[in-house]
């Protein structure tokens, strides 16, 4: 006999979508249980962007790439707090033109900018979203200099960080990321939500007027009987759970992400260090199609990025402080699929970049390299195996017009759109407020909802939509 | 080859690196880990008939040559296998506290 938990609302997943949903509904007086497959770790349980973090917080060890040519490594978390525990904390509101596209093409109701302002503001306040009050990291300043020399639009992006009054040398502000375990998760607990980590939801079943979540905890069966279910497992696991539950209409057919290519830049001066933070400067000259920014540039990540260039004469131990990694990401119409595989816990992800994507990535890469040379870089190593080092603008023609499928290293940390919302039920999975078409009191409330790739870091959009939908459910919108 | 071949010293143990690679392999979806294990087995025995020894029994310089040959192979599977192991090993090696310690010493 399986252990049974009863509640009014079960929230499956505790990332930005799940934590905001659980906190909002618990604060409204609902009896909420939030399930999380991963462990409940303290925010400082492991150093950010370390292999310890990869071991303890990444889903499948970070090794479930999207199949295609090239394969695209995906980064997903599996711990209380979800993706907010492992990302860089950069914050954007959903761009107005993206909201317009979603309203017009997907018939999403009540999605004008004024409809979302209160939700953005509430989340921004809870997460202390702000600009860095100190000096930006040197790698970020380089990006700004390059953009200004070329006359390109560049912005400093706010982050969900609390900054200390204490400053490191060079006036760099020390901040603490306001992830879900620092903010919405404890707030949900304080409001009465029960958080149950280490539980994997296997299937959802309708039993009369209620839902039953069939789950497993440490090998033992667990059942959750509830009036309503919010599935917030992220853009991969949410469609996988729904499809395991035989709910398949427009589920997992339209996964979108931002394919991202990286470049290692070498400068004459030091731009990196032991406590180097991720720069928040982004270049928006080619937005929304292309966005550029700074990436994690610790020594292990630099060494990893340089594996595409085994013949390069670079002494990493000696020169890593003069090196930093930058990225260019594109936002296109290509979509992939998420499917379950017999005998595997992990779903299979297929995503085939189009020839146009590879041409766009090439243009993005060329522009990123141009910007870095303008910023003073002396050598550039793009993520294309076998491409010679670039030593000046004249070398940019060495970058193929269409990036080679079998030699290009891409990645992404932004995943969405696998269960798009809207009233256009022919090609959406859920309605304008996240309820799965044809399934009363079954909701999706995470990145899966986003109709298309937003072209910006998605967490602000995810949280605002989650709050909006939870309040709509509570009839308090 | 750029200078990341030995960030910790030639006489050091690599058990922690091996442990990390094996642990990550276990976490991978089975539809990836099983083909990788199969390709690894093929890699291990691929020179048996020609050279008379398994990969792990061969001298280090011959192992390097074999890795290099697979890394530059025209077969994507061979290249991907080497890239997979190289990525994990490099991440683990450069994440060692010893690496940081040596880095600090080097900084004077």
Plain-language structure description:
- The complex is a heterodimer of chains A (477) and B (108).
- Chain A has eleven helices and 21 strands.
- Chain A has 477 residues and is an alpha+beta fold.
- Chain A has two domains: 3-62 and 75-128 and 180-255 and 416-473, FAD/NAD(P)-binding domain (3-Layer(bba) Sandwich); 130-176 and 259-411.
- In chain A, strand 8 and strand 9 form a beta hairpin.
- In chain A, helix 1 packs parallel to helix 6 (184-190).
- The longest helix of chain A is centred in the C-terminal third of the chain and has 20 residues, at 355-374.
- The two termini of chain A are 40 Å apart.
- Chain B has one domain (29-107).
- Chain B contains six helices and no strands.
- In chain B, helix 1 (15-27) packs across helix 5 (76-94).
- Mean pLDDT of chain B is 83; it is low at 103-108.
- At the A-B interface, helix 2, helix 8 and helix 9 of A face helix 1, helix 2, helix 5 and helix 6 of B.
How many domain units of chain A?
2
Q: If you compute it from the alpha carbons, what radius of gyration of chain B comes out, rounded to the nearest whole angstrom?
A: 16 Å
Query: Low-confidence stretches of chain B at least 5 residues in length (pLDDT < 50)?
Result: 103-108
Domains of chain B (count): 1
Structural class of chain A: alpha+beta
Helicity of chain A, in percent?
25-40%
How many helix segments of chain A? 11
Tell me the number of strands of chain A: 21
Quaternary structure state of the chains depicted: heterodimer
> Helix/strand-derived class of chain B?
mainly alpha
Q: Which spans of chain A of ≥5 residues are poorly predicted at pLDDT below 50?
A: none
Shape of chain B: globular
Q: Which bin fits the share of residues in helices of chain B?
A: 55-70%
């Amino acid at each position: 006999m399986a252990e049974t938990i009863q509640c009014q609302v079960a929230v499956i997943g505790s990332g930005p979508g799940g934590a905001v949903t659980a906190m909002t509904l618990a604060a409204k007086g609902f009896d909420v249980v939030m399930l999380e497959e991963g462990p409940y770790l303290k925010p400082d349980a492991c150093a950010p962007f370390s292999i310890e973090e990869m071991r303890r917080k990444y889903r499948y060890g970070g090794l479930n790439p999207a199949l295609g040519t090239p394969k695209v490594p995906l980064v997903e978390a599996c711990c209380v707090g979800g993706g907010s525990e492992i990302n860089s904390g950069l914050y954007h509101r959903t761009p107005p033109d993206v909201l317009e596209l979603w309203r017009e093409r997907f018939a999403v109701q009540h999605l004008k900018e004024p409809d979302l302002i209160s939700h953005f503001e509430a989340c921004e306040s809870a997460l202390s979203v702000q600009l860095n009050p100190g000096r930006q990291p040197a790698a970020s300043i380089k990006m700004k200099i390059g953009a200004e020399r070329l006359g390109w639009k560049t912005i400093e992006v706010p982050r969900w960080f609390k900054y200390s009054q204490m400053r490191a040398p060079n006036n760099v502000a020390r901040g603490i990321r306001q992830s879900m375990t620092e903010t919405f998760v404890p707030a949900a607990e304080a409001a009465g939500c029960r958080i149950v980590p280490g539980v994997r939801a296997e299937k959802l079943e309708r039993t009369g007027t209620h839902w039953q979540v069939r789950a497993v905890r440490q090998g033992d069966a667990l059942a959750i009987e509830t009036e309503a279910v919010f599935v917030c497992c992220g853009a991969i696991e949410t469609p996988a759970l729904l499809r395991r539950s035989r709910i398949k209409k427009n589920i997992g057919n339209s996964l979108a992400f931002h394919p991202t290519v990286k470049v290692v830049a070498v400068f004459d001066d030091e731009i990196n260090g032991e406590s180097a933070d991720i720069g928040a400067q982004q270049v928006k000259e080619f937005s929304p199609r292309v966005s550029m920014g700074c990436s994690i540039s610790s020594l292990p990540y630099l060494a990893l990025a340089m594996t595409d260039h085994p013949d390069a004469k670079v002494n990493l131990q000696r020169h890593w402080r003069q090196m930093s990694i930058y990225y260019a990401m594109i936002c296109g119409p290509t979509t992939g699929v998420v499917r379950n595989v017999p005998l595997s816990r992990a779903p299979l992800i297929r995503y085939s970049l189009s020839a146009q994507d590879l041409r766009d990535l090439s243009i993005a890469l060329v522009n990123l390299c141009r910007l870095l040379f303008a910023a003073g870089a002396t050598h550039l190593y793009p993520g294309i195996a076998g491409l010679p080092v670039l030593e000046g603008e004249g070398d940019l023609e060495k970058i193929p017009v269409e990036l080679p499928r079998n030699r290009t290293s891409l990645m992404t940390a932004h995943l969405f759109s696998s269960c798009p919302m809207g009233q256009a039920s022919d090609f959406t999975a859920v309605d304008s407020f996240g309820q799965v078409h044809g399934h009363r009191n079954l909701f999706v409330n995470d990145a899966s909802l986003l109709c298309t790739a937003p072209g910006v870091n998605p967490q602000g959009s995810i949280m605002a939509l989650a709050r909006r939908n939870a309040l709509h459910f509570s009839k308090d919108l | 080859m750029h200078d990341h071949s030995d960030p910790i010293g030639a006489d050091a143990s690599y058990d922690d690196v091996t442990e990390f690679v094996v642990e990550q392999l276990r976490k991978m979806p089975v539809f990836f880990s099983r083909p990788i294990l199969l390709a690894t087995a093929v890699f291990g025995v691929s020179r048996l008939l020609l050279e008379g020894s398994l990969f792990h029994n061969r001298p280090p310089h011959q192992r390097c040559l074999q890795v290099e040959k697979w890394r530059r192979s025209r077969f994507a599977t061979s290249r991907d296998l080497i890239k997979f192991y190289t990525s994990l090993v490099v991440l683990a090696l450069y994440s060692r506290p010893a690496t940081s310690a040596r880095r600090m010493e080097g900084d004077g």
